[in-house]
Amino acid sequence: MRERFWEKYTLEELTDDEWEALCDGCGQCCLLKFHDDDTNELAVLNVACRLLDTHSCQCSDYENRFDTVPDCTQLTPALVREFNWLPATCGYRRVAEGRKLAGWHPLLSNDAERVHRKGISVRGFAVSELDVPERDYDEHIIAVLPIG
Known about the structure:
With about 150 residues, this protein is α+β, with helices and mostly antiparallel strands. The chain has a domain at about 5-30 and about 50-120. It has seven helices and six strands. The chain has helices spanning about 5-10, 15-20, 65-70, 75-80, 90-95, 105-110, 115; strands spanning about 30-35, 40-50, 50-55, 60, 125-130, 140-145. Strands 1, 2, 5 and 6 form a four-stranded mixed sheet that branches. Strands 3-4 form a two-stranded antiparallel ribbon.
């Protein structure tokens, strides 16, 4: 990877490896979200995709995630700019907005556990969708965000 690539190149100019390295490993993008067309709001749940390991905050089948979870969304530079629900701490969002990466980001700290120790990841509060009946999803809403 190119040295400090996130400071020198746009998201569109990143190699695949650089793009992947920009992920801070928080797992927040893997939380279930539901869009209300009437209110144009997005409900964010503490329920994570069934493939998310809620301890490591990593996908348990990253290579095959689109086959296993057809509605899994591949983040792209355009989607990063569109998804205002991405947390302000997100490495992709920060670079897209022209901000510096947080000091705890693995690319700066060389410590993938720091995101968890800082309380930024979903570790400790996310539950797998395999453990929550769909009828109970309303009880798991942790945020409601305006879209657009």
